[in-house]
């Protein structure tokens, strides 16, 4: 099999004058070192965590595209007040796309790298919105016989995030979970994991149709934050499950604080658990997303044993160590088409990704909508 | 030595109709069990953490006193919107006062309890605003020969809090500290500890005279949050010290968020430390007080590796374990009149505590002002 000498890779640049630019660049085909492999990328998803980086907080409602094929360029304005937060990346053309899957078409000399040659693998490592990408062989997850690259494209971000939420729960001494934006692709996986593992999960959604998605999945606790009875329903569910850990995808506003208030109110129902400085059991909300970009507001009306903080998969995996990472990955490979199945709204070529109307579709991050980039599609 | 059959103890009650009531009640002298001792309380400080409980978030500007001597009663109104947070304590007459010192006048049968008989000890355990109090012998810290009850009255809350901040720093992998309201009695102790232990400390204050207090103590980093250059000064100091942990006494408003922003800006100055998801090193702010009762607002403009949370001494000590607690206490006893010396604005009898004007003085929590209750003073 002979490889082309060059390939196309997507880049995202924030310019000093406040513009987001996305376009394809031509790269030379690399030669893998001992422990590296080159993957011909066949499928790579657009996750919310990718969008944050690729669109650089620009205003996609004002995005426009020019040119066609490999020359298409997307531009979008960035509000001046956002620019200071982007200082560290100005005028750097960043490769984007955190995960993907495809066939290993070149491998370094090491036994492990060689063993992957010709195999369909999923990989994490950045720069996946490209026709090819070179990665460390250790960052590859060989798919089981019969599983396709499209089935394996989302093997890392959502599956490992959902599994790591349950791991975090165990490592930090909690016994049940609260999750917001709970009808998302990730939230559905989390429901399947919790049901399989016997972990109680309180699902928070905003809309009736999201309630229905979770009801169809067999979820036991579904709380709608748009209802007048939200706080009472939440306290009841937290009291029943004993959840003292929440993962919040929205990040902004009062939701994290409301969850802590509900945990405290639930604790106060148990005689003896309450002291004048609040309940003694630590109550934690991790913000792992920023669907709501407004400030986070905390009332602090929940005693002294509480925490709010950012949560990021790579940081968790680095802390948890190799043994945990290997265990979680092997579960993903085994349950790829069941627990961790993803479905996609549409498949896009690399050029489609740069179409302004298409950008607005994936930037909307609607529940149940998810896009798959197929870099081998004609551009 | 014969003990009286009854003694006076201060109580604080939040009534269902929104009133704070403080008054003395007569209690029967208890008989200590095996591991208990009875202390004749000679000196007990009014700490901010005591005030929060004793005044129950009432409006002390509208407080009034009636009666005299043992019959004096203090009342103050509580705003209706605060009442839900006080639900768990309604109509309970709570004993108050977290720490104090005095002479052991009765002891249970155990060897350790007997060994304390006649000794001057400091103790933590609640209900210290009283002429006598019964405590577990293990909660007593025998003062060194020659140290008085007044010198030992504040042996626990401030000394152990300051020491535990440095312990927390080490346990959680940080190497330098940021502290707010840094000219307080606690802040001054923290400066002495950090100087002795070679720990870099960034002191945040609001006023020129507070800067002066810390300059006189030999503090190296003193940042004034009222100055226009506050954020720049803070980033510079955090960059120089490498501080990634802060303890904030104010709790409300933007200060915690500003500290995290400064930590992130300092990290971004170090090439390689910055990724698109923010700096990788965990940045933490613990809120251990609530001088600012407004909501805490977080901008989240500091990546994903950050946390904000409540911090309470008893919760920390429970987590750190007995070995740590014993080590910290023994340091307090040894350095009681140097590192951990407290000075007091005024000495109050139990009846003085119930005088409305006096209440307003201690509720003001002015920097450098601290009151000592002497329950053996004539009421």
Structural description of this entry:
- Chain A is of the alpha/beta class and 379 residues long.
- Chain A has 2 domains: 6-154 and 342-373, Quinone Oxidoreductase, Chain A, domain 1; 158-316, NAD(P)-binding Rossmann-like Domain (Rossmann fold).
- Helix content of chain A is 28%, strand content 28%.
- Chain A is built from 11 helices and 20 strands.
- In chain A, strands 3, 7, 8, 9, 10, 19 and 20 form a 7-stranded mixed sheet that branches. A 6-stranded parallel sheet of chain A has the order 13-12-11-14-16-18, with helices on both faces.
- In chain A, helix 7 (230-241) packs across helix 8.
- The longest helix of chain A is centred in the middle third of the chain and has 15 residues, at 157-171.
- The two termini of chain A are 22 Å apart.
- The model of chain A has no long low-confidence stretch (mean pLDDT 94).
- The A-B interface holds A 53, 85, 87-89, 94, 251-252, 268, 274, 276-278, 280, 282, 284, 287-288, 290, 295-301, 303-312, 314-315, 318 and B 53, 85, 87-89, 94, 251-252, 268, 274, 276-278, 280, 282, 284, 287-288, 290, 295-312, 314-315, 318.
- Chains A, B: Residues 18-301 form the Enoyl reductase (ER) domain.
- Chains A, B: InterPro entries: ADH-like_C (IPR013149), ADH-like_N (IPR013154), ER (IPR020843), GroES-like_sf (IPR011032), NAD(P)-bd_dom_sf (IPR036291).
- Chains A, B: Keywords: NADP, Oxidoreductase.
- Chains A, B: This is Alcohol dehydrogenase GroES domain protein.
- Chains A, B: GO terms for molecular function: NADPH binding; oxidoreductase activity, acting on NAD(P)H.
